[in-house]
Amino acid sequence: MKNVLPHKPNYVILVLFSLIFFIANSQQPNDEYLFDAYKNYSELPREIAYGHLNKSTLIKGESLGFSIYLLDKYTKTSSLLTKNVYCTIQNRSGKIIKKKMILAKNGVASGIFKIDSLFKSGNYVFKAYTNWMRNFEEQNFYVQHLKVINPDKHSFIDADDDKYFDLDAQFLPEGGHLLLNAKNTVGVVIKDDYGFGVPYLKGRVLNTNGEEVANFETNSHGISKFKFTPKSRTVYTVELSDEEATTITLDIGEPQGVNMSLQDLNDKVALVFRTNESTLPNIANESFKLAIGNGSQLNVSDIAFKDKTEIKALINLIDFNTGINIITLFNKNNKPVLERLYFKHDGIKSIVIGVPSVEKLKDSLLITIPSASINTKQFNNLSISVLPAETKSYNHHHNIFSSTLLQPYVKGCIENARYYFTNIDNNKKSELDNLLLTQGWSSNDWTTIFNTAPTNQFEFENGITINASLNNTKGNKFLFSPLQNSPSITLTIKNGERNFSAGGLLPLENEPLKIGVIDKKDRVLKPNLYVQFSPMEIPSLEHKYTSLKYKNKNAFKYDASLPILDESWNKIEALDTVLLSVKKEEKRIEKIKRFNKGRVDVFNDSRRKNTTSFASYIGTKGFSVFQDFRDPRSLLIDLPRKTSFEMNSQPLIYLNDLVVNDQRILMDIDMSTMDYVIIDKSGLGEGIRGANGVIKIYTNYMLRTREYNVSWDSGQEIEFPLTFSESKKFYTPLYSTYLNDFYQNYGVIDWFPKCEINDKSIIRFKVLDTKIKQIKLFIEGTANDGAFISEEKIITIN
Prior knowledge:
Elements: E1 11-16, H1 31-42, E2 47-53, E3 57-59, E4 63-72, E5 84-90, E6 96-103, E7 108-114, E8 122-129, E9 142-149, E10 156-157, E11 168-173, E12 184-191, E13 202-206, E14 212-217, E15 223-228, E16 237-240, E17 247-249, E18 258-264, E19 268-275, H2 280-283, E20 288-293, E21 298-303, E22 310-316, E23 323-330, E24 336-344, E25 357-361, E26 364-370, E27 381-388, H3 400-405, H4 426-439, H5 446-451, E28 464-470, E29 477-480, E30 489-492, E31 499-505, E32 513-518, E33 524-525, E34 529-534, E35 556-557, E36 565-566, H6 576-594, E37 599-602, H7 605-610, H8 614-618, E38 624-626, E39 636-638, E40 652-655, E41 658-659, E42 674-680, E43 694-699, E44 716-718, E45 734-735, H9 741-746, E46 750-755, E47 762-768, E48 774-783, E49 787-796
Parallel strand pairs: 1-22, 3-9, 40-43
Antiparallel strand pairs: 2-4, 4-7, 5-6, 5-8, 8-9, 10-35, 11-12, 12-15, 13-14, 13-16, 16-17, 18-19, 19-22, 20-21, 20-23, 23-24, 25-26, 26-47, 27-46, 27-48, 28-31, 28-34, 29-30, 29-32, 32-33, 32-44, 36-45, 37-42, 38-39, 40-41, 42-43, 48-49
Protein name: Plug domain-containing protein
């Protein structure tokens, strides 16, 4: 095969078409140490959290709305292993101001923090994490800075000073080593006092004689690179074109060693490894290991310099993992000597939704977004922040792509990381590669990999677990009252046992649990239990983290004598729970009807009470019900027959999605547990079995407390020390005016943490018409089993 790089006498080209895959049987005995260490390190699954917050700058009196997406770190699909998600807001000194536990369903949780009197003007940090994440040193949890403005105390918003007094200029050799008398690629990062990149700053690299040997110019994020060959006994300086004409002396290079550089050749990647003439005799016959991993898979190949000072290894793009690839060169002693990060865009699952439309409805706007690319049969969730188009309050550094595919693998924080995953083109791919060049070693620390494999000290949490001890309690059968998110539970222990446990309880705020002991007459009596809980409190997350605050580039003044918020909006919150419950039930019934053929008959408490048996109920729906007087338990449900000679016309019957082969079991249905019945006399879609129609019966086992003579007054009431916060509706505050610049810059229109896509592949929601000309939608989410959505849409209102 023709090589894509020209041959030169001082290097050798290795074409690596495929590598040895992770946990494969290595042909080299000393490879086992590397593979075993990596296997032990990656054996435990990882989940990562991404938080979509409705704003980054908030006004005291507003609410912070947020959605937390839990994802498998390696597959990028929703993580279903955890239900308990912890969210905190802490001030600059680390004191936690607000905290709560929220419930994750299908890997998504949402909540609200009130920005109330506990908040002063200043900077805060939002964190979202799970108990399982505490097992790992990696930053798999989510961190984001917030800014709060208290208009009662301040009548202005300061802009950060744009003058750079103390430049932080870093010159980082690619792979980690600057080698004398060899060609080097050096990454450049120049930051200001706040940790933000200094854009479009020019620099010249000068030798001892003042001669220019290289030059560069930083991009919009303060990043660049240059190439040069440093010579022995030569001092190199960098002269910057800032106001003070800053001069920086470069570190002296290493006289012996190896270095590396990466070249992206579209369908291949060239990894160039170099040494110098003084090093070559010592390593000529040494076999190096080139490892490429992503935290779960490791690919390894052997390379050697032999009699050449330069090796070019060509690797097919298909042999890289989608997303981050950690490229490490090990010496013969399995010591890592070089490392470089590379990002492969091919294979990333992304979804683009359609162009929104808007319709005016009295005092509101109806927004419709076509989403044909989303498979409605698979789980999906979109969170949408609706803000004025001129907003300056949404300055998140990350979107779901950068937070999931990039941040967990780097040690440092990345300014405006979402930039690299918005409107991606070749230029942005190149800029991302320059960023990764400057990041150096990845967050997968090899010292930890070789010496300290993580353990599952902290478990996945699926609600609250109780451990109960019996004190002077007779009986071995216990009944748990249902909770809003947990069914009633019947638990039987062996005779003589004095303890029992129950998990998976999902209590909401102020929702107690009642436990009764059932006697021989099926009466529920009050037990005497000593109960312990796990977890009992929100666990602390003491891990070190990196993040950038938001840089405010715009000063703004407003009249502090005029109130910004109309506080009367708080009065409507009393209706919150009732309205949510009604709407939730309406949506559930609508969804059942939408996805089922035939007539859906939903039971309410009144119908459950007044319907004596299933036989009497189904007889009113056009079916004949026969019972044999010789066998009181016999039951035959049939379609009416036109003649006595007509063949069997029994419908196909399901009970909770299981086929009922013996209709006698229908005699035992407790109508107090009936949820809904679907009657489809056409039987379409059921084949020949459904020729006589289909009846689908669904019961609600959460109501099955009528199986016993329950009087919960006699049960033992138990208070949970830790509960899940209720998923309340986000209420947009009323502003005193929507016409001034302050609202345009810092106001909020609405927040939707769980947007549903209907059967016509459309997202539809209403917002208040604030009479502004343009609004902006910030959309984040996941769909189609691992595909991400991150878009910004501007809507013009005519």
